[in-house]
């Protein structure tokens, strides 16, 4: 069964395509994708992310900065700890689709 959608203004389509490309460009890095995978499950501290993912602190900080500057994650400080969480609903939706396609099937040999 074919879905029909109302026509979309080409300028709206171009703006949407630019936004999607920007999101996918940020996610097209293995470390950032792993961070987003973990954060899609809930808020975590930098130390927790480092332990869970095995990404060394300097690299992790660099990738978290990219995610924060892109508006994909937000931070919360509690004492000396900084906690990160997903701040972008579109990114969370993309992560859900990626999980469903690549991680939900236990016969697939990938780590998410």
UniProtKB/TrEMBL annotation:
What Gene Ontology molecular function terms does this protein carry?
DNA binding; DNA-binding transcription factor activity
User: Pfam families per the record?
Assistant: HTH_5
State the species of origin.
Duganella violaceipulchra
Q: Which CDD domains match?
A: HTH_ARSR (cd00090)
Respond yes or no to whether keyword Transferase is given for this record.
no
User: Can you say what this protein is called?
Assistant: DNA-binding transcriptional ArsR family regulator
Where the record annotates domain HTH arsR-type, the positions are 12-106
> Signal peptide position in this chain?
none
**Keywords tagged on the record:** DNA-binding, Transcription, Transcription regulation
InterPro entries per record: ArsR-like_HTH, HTH_ArsR_DNA-bd_dom, Metal_resp_trans_reg
């Amino acid at each position: 069964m074919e879905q029909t959608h109302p026509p979309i203004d080409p300028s709206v389509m171009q703006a949407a395509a630019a936004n999607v490309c920007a999101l996918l460009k940020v996610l097209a890095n293995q470390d950032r994708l792993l961070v987003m995978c973990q954060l899609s499950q809930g808020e975590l501290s930098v130390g927790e992310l480092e332990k869970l993912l095995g990404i060394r602190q300097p690299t992790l900080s660099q990738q978290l900065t990219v995610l924060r500057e892109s508006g994909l994650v937000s931070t919360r400080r509690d004492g000396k700890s900084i906690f990160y969480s997903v701040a972008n609903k579109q990114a969370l939706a993309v992560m859900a689709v990626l999980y469903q396609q690549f991680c939900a099937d236990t016969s697939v040999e990938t780590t998410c």
